[in-house]
Amino acid sequence: MIRTTCPYCGVGCGVRAEAGDDGAVTVAGDALHPASRGRLCVKGAALGETVGLEGRLLSPMLRSEAGLQAVPWEAALDKVAEGFRRIVAEHGPDAVALYVSGQLLTEDYYVANKFMKGYIGSANIDTNSRLCMSAAVAGHKRAFGEDIVPGCYEDFELADLVVLVGSNAAWCHPTLYQRIVRAREARPQMKVVVIDPRRTATCDLADLHLPLKPGSDVWLFNGLLAWLATQGALDSAWVEAHTAGLGEALDAAGQAGSLLDVAKACRLDPQQVLAFYELFARTEKTVTAFTMGVNQSSSGADKVNAIINCHLATGRIGRPGMGPFSLTGQPNAMGGREVGGLANMLAAHMELDDPAQRAAVQAFWDAPRMAHQPGLKAVDLFHAIEAGTVKAVWIMATNPLVSLPEADQARRALAKCELVVVSDIVQDTDTNALAHVLLPALGWGEKDGTVTNSERCISRQRAFLPAPGQARPDWEIVCDVARRMGFNGFDFTSPHQIFDEHARLSSWQNGAGSQRRRLFDIGGLAGMTHSDYDALEPVQWPVCRPGDRTRRLFGDGRFSHPDGRARFVPTRARLPAHLPDDEFPLVLNTGRVRDQWHTMTRTGRSPRLAEHLPEPYIDMHPQDALLCGVKEGELARLRSNWGAGVARVRHGGGIARGSVFMPIHWSGRTASDARVGAVVNPAVDPVSGEPEFKHTPVRIEPF
Ligand code: SF4
């Protein structure tokens, strides 16, 4: 048995996996992993059914007039390196880009980021994590001075009140949800509040469900902050000692008006709002967890800060059982953030727009040409490709023609792009259909490295299967292209060496004259031997010295801003970017289903997982269906200003009048195009660049 980590959600459960002589893979939960303590959800438990080679990309391929042809690695790597070198020489470094993924391991992410930002000299490397948690990153940086989740999963068990905002944790973070369930069984006095426009499976646990109007979260939390102030429920001494900006935040929050005004803006019963506010005010041990329902909004960063403001105002942060908590969607969204895998970040939590920090990283990397300004964020990147300013893109471990908003625009962009390179584990995807070069990558069970989960816990993903065909690790492919382009600094021969450099950079930058205390520091994991790295046990960062164990941060009231104080961020409630009208009267919300993962390239292989919800669907209220002339069980077309998709109408019972829900998983390579990304509007949060997946005006038509 190999101890490894689940490749799906940000809970990051430990898995024990083994391949039998007949090739069959068995998996079980890893009782020693602190995130999951032996538990797996149904997706994790079915991992053994998803590792077969059917449909795998097993050879590099180049497109010619005859279509895609298998070629030797040398030819494919030459094509990528020559293409990137020529376009950079002719048009400058910003004419090329990488679009990567929270599925990459930290070591893959590290070399991809180093390649672009330190050697190509452009920050045009963004990630599909932009689509799910960049609002949380922006909120953390504004409030704390650094992208940090202060708490740990144990806080959900120690809390007397768990508030879940925009989170269907029962389906999307199942083993963590089960920890809350068990904690509540052990301590029935513990309360759970769910804030979500939909009545989801998570609401089964709720003492109070607030089905707020889509997009109105800032009103609710601004109202809470103002109400806490009027009730004398702020921790004034703590605020005075450790924060700045409460006055401005209260001014902004006051614009939410009275509790009745808030209830009206959120379309809630005032008694429910009051019940939530009173519960929050009297419960010191409160965890407020948030995820896509908060982040995927044109005001996502403000929603995050409106939540954090309430925790700062009450001093409820960094201590057992309390704090704001960002639940990440992907297995390594956090690891990607740590190595700077977003277009507006550097490495090791340093800032691209800080000349001293840029110089520090450049010196550490001995890099010839550093990016000197933020690059293009995901949505802007695909618009730049369509406009022709970005002429080559290398996509790794993601399928943007299904997952991006306004996905038909992304398809137009790739169709026009001079050079589209895709590294993937499967051959046949919407995105790969437009690739000029396909590079076969290793998948889960074959690749080796680390991931970081939502509670800052670094865990090993370990290989227990042989590399299939000619597939290779992503880090090695990037290094080969970099060396072909004449770049030094990519002589890595193992993920262990990459992790070591990453760990050394994290501590080196703290000692490099920086005036700001950076908490991301894993210098205590530098210098491990290869076998130490192989045996690395799950560990939460920071690890400044070997043996450090840090469950929570900010408990000492010191934050990462230069003056050590947290910042209140004034948040002004604003409406979503696009509102329903006579032509598009309904609001589309999107999300995951319990048993599928992203574009189903893995979970779609398991018949067991398909049993739960076997096909795409549009969940809507029966009265709205009647008005639209569609019936449950029939196919219907969902249309917006940006595109259309087809799925079967369903009345799940959790949808309010005026809203519809469609899952994100299904692709355009089915009999009917069920890509909900094609329907989603491309509006983004101006602070974080995160798209507004949760609010697109649509209409439903009979198919
Ligand atoms: Fe754990 Fe998430 Fe994997 Fe389920 S999908 S086993 S909750 S990491």
UniProtKB/TrEMBL annotation:
Alphabetized, the UniProt keywords read: 4Fe-4S, Iron, Iron-sulfur, Metal-binding, Molybdenum, Nitrate assimilation, Oxidoreductase
All copies of the 4Fe-4S Mo/W bis-MGD-type domain together span 1-55
* Requisite cofactors: Mo-bis(molybdopterin guanine dinucleotide); [4Fe-4S] cluster
This chain's source organism reads Massilia norwichensis
TM stretches of this protein: none
Family statement: Belongs to the prokaryotic molybdopterin-containing oxidoreductase family. NasA/NapA/NarB subfamily.
Q: Which domain of life is it from?
A: Bacteria
- This chain's protein is named Molybdopterin-dependent oxidoreductase
